[in-house]
Amino acid sequence: MSVVGVLALQGDVHEHLVALAEADVLARPIRRPEELAEVDGVVLPGGESTAISRLLATFDLLEPLRARIKEGMPTYGSCAGMILLADRVLDGRADQHQLGGLDIVVRRNAFGRQVDSFEADLDFTDVGEVHAVFIRAPWVENVGEGVEVLARVPESAEAGAAAGRIVAVRQGHVLATSFHPELTGDGRVHRHFVDMVRAAG
Ligand code: GLN
To answer: Among 8, 67, 146, 182, whose CB has the most other CB atoms within 10 angstroms?
Structure first.
């Protein structure tokens, strides 16, 4: 059975562990480099990217995680996790560390400037229609050539300036969403990621 870790330094770790267990993998929290070495894939949860980035350095996980992502370990980041995976961040803190791996530019707290939380039904490539919950979420401003856009915010009165913004992407073994499928009880995005883990294994 595949083993998938959830980076457990800060954020909604438990919800991701539950969603992964329901997708029939062994799900484990990760706080140490030795634990990272044992997993086939990793999830970076939602939370606060500046706090997680600081803790990654404190727990000596920054370089090991960068290295595994570079080597091709399947990785999924939701919200703060997407920010950590982005090669460039707008409105980030100057001392914020990036794991990188995704050739995208994200704008941190992009939705948060209009409303703290926002929900929408999205058409998610390879998954279907998904009810997306955004909490002080980033959006993707730009994607590089190798990045596949999987979902955008649909046009609606509530969406305002967020309409058309990119909120789910994939680049090879790296998947990221601005929103939180772990909070809605819909396991399809996690199952999609688990399929990526199995295909790589
Ligand atoms: N605003 C948070 C950040 O900058 C992300 C919010 C979230 O993960 N729900 O990291």
So the answer is: 182
The answer to whether position 99 is within a domain reads yes
CATH number reported for the structural domain that contains residue 13 in this entry: 3.40.50.880
User: Residue 180 catalytic?
Assistant: yes
Separation between Cα atoms, residue 157 and residue 24, nearest integer Å: 39
Q: Which one is predicted more confidently, 139 or 159?
A: 139
Mean pLDDT of 147-158: 92
Q: Of ligand 1's atoms, which has the minimum distance to the CA of residue 134?
A: 9
What's the average model confidence in pLDDT over 156-181? Answer: 93
Q: Can 182 be counted among the known catalytic residues?
A: yes
Of ligand 1's listed atoms, the one at least distance from the Cα of 83 is 10
* pTM for this entry: 0.96
- Indicate which residue of 79, 173, 190, 192 is catalytic: 79
Tell me: the pLDDT tens digits for 49-85?
Answer: 999 999 999 999 999 999 999 999 999 999 999 999 9
Closest CA to 13 of 30, 32, 26, 34: 30
Tell which residue, 132, 113, 107, has the closest CA to residue 184: 132
